User: What shape does this take?
Amino acid sequence: MRKYLFLLKNQVSLVAAYRFEMVSRWIMSAFDTIVYVALWSLAAQGDPEQIRKVFLYFVLFYGILHGLQTGKVAKWMAEDISSGQLNQYLVRPINFPLVQVIKSVTVLIVRSLVPALIIAVGILVLPDYFAPVGVPNLILAILFALLGLVLWNLFMILMGTAAFWVTEIDSLLTVVDLTLNLFKGAYIPAFLFPAQVSRILSFTPIPYLSAFPIAVYQQPITTSTALFSLAIIGSWGLALGLLAALTYRKGLEHYEAVGG
Amino acid sequence: MFHYLKVYCQFLKSSISLFMSHRFNFFMGALANIVWTIGQLISIRYLFLKIDRFQGWEFADLVLLLGLGQIYYYLAFVVFDVNLDRLPRKIIEGDFDRMLTKPINIKFLVSCERVAIAQIIPLLVTVIPLTTYGLRSRPDLNATGLLASLPVVALGFGIFYFVSLSTAALSFFVADVQSLRDFVLRGSLNLVRIPLDIFPKLIQAALTFVIPLAFIGFYPVRVLQGGASLVNLLLIEAVLAVVFYLISDYLWRVGLRRYSGVG
Assistant: This one.
């Protein structure tokens, strides 16, 4: 455990060194937020309550949650597998996918810090626009966001293991990411999805990545909905985890047979 | 001029060979852009299921805005952004020294060394249907309006080339310039899809004179709608083109001197 904490600390210093990149990313997230709030406020047709809902939805989506789900884990895994850097991990008592997740999570922590601070200040200064529906909802939203992050990283490990068989996965990752964006609620607020679509999606892991934590933040949630969501997240987590472990093992066998 | 055309043909040939040898990756990259555009189109369609129009803007106008924004995005990437994006890395890795030894204009070489053939696919697959739909849906469309909006788009493209060239030249001064380029040339391009009318005056002015995005999509559509004076627009664009050219030229001259000085 200590070695992973040490890695986390090292990564924080490394990420903090690229301050300029971080600031640019924040500004780009702000641009995305402005674009989608501007567009979807039109659908609110002057209803201030609905406009506030759209605003907070995209602030949370592009400010925090969208940034948490990057393809870095898969990308770094693929790079290390293709270049043979994986060998360095295999000869050490260290878990290769876990190291990539820690590296990625560090970037995300640093990246989310300022948007989270802005939202915190917003809650104090402009509670009508930023505040969650209640403190328990805030805690639950954070919990669900973290569970969503676990699901996402398991999926990314699975994608990363594809590099054992194909040489380049960058563009494949982009296609998958952009397709998921449509259903995650990046272009259309998830609360405006047709009921039928939302119902089907609720059985997939997609809404639990972003839309569900935001919904929990913005509106009251029943115990049965929370339990249903936890059951779905748990099932998908188990399935993705097992699949990722299996493909990683198979991939390693392939890697060792062919040679790094 | 003829010499440069011949050189460009050679760049094109080698880019085609490169494209053929990495077909899968390039096609996936193109597919990603197509998926993004389809996502945007679905979101606009869905929005207009909830509203009819706003401030004179209809669904077809927004499709046209999206199409025009995409024209710039892909064309810029096909022609020069694919190369200018790689300048910081070339400087760090020393590859830029090789370029300086060539008997050719360095800005031309840095801008045009490679042609992003794969991005021609989304350019054809997404932009043509989007702009055709956007134009055909206009009941008042005529050849004059169409011809009048073309120079606005072309000059807007030229201005943005100089913006791109200027930001690339910053690589001579700071190491981490790619993020700035991403923000100015990609992130801000998101705003092209939105009619500027809905923003406050200050943001409208910033997107016209500081990051002149408005000339890529908004003003050409306004010209088609008959809501903007063509002469005034072209005059402003000409002035901006000269200003951004001078900025890029200055940054390149000082940057190259600095680069040679450092070694």
Summary: Chain B has a mean pLDDT of 84. DSSP finds twelve helices and no strands in chain B. Residues 73 and 186 of chain B are 8 Å apart (CA to CA).
